[in-house]
Amino acid sequence: MAPEINADFIEVYEAALSERDCATLIRQFEASGKAIRGQTGGGVNTRLKDSWDICINDYAEWSGAANLLNSAMMRALMRYVRTYPHTAIAPLSLQMPDPETGELVALDATTIRGMPDDRLQQLMVKLFRPGTINIQKYLANQGGYPYWHCELYPKIGDSHGETLHRILLWSVYLNDAFAEGETEFLHQQRKVVPQTGSLLIAPAGFTHTHRGNMPRGGDKYIATSWVLFQRAEVLFAQPGPRR
To answer: pTM score, two decimals?
Structure first.
């Protein structure tokens, strides 16, 4: 389905993760003892971001959780790209072999929207890669990410420009037993209210500047990450000679 003309490119997919899985992730977070002060691109500054975070990719015991969350992200990403196919074809001129003739054909919006799930997933894996996942806890009546920010920026020490490869942000709300605590988008004048298991996807750039409002009356837990482009060396790699 084509997006509305006034689409804000912010999509929320309900029940992307089950309530049981969300509760399990919260229990694992609390039992881990690995949470550290959340950082922004410039380091720890609780005036900008007041949270406790675990980067779950850093710990082997979280591998199952990472797989679970990335699977949910991929399902949502496929829906997102069907709605907004230029997520893929505006940055890159794409061709794929025709399944019947084997000849390369250019991909357009109609083709992407009509792709079978398996072919679309293959395309997503070719173009994009998952970022590292943070599970974050925002304390009731204290925590939040009040600074208006985006997810696309140059970072000191990031010699590979990883933060500049981000195209989309995503978050899964792991609970909703609190008031407020919305993800608020500045230019779109939109507040996304957390619902347990729902997954938010939005563009990573400055057009979707956002903040995380303080939860009232209960702690807030989210899992959050990014969708990145594959590096150019991977996207444009030439096949080696046959032997």
So the answer is: 0.93
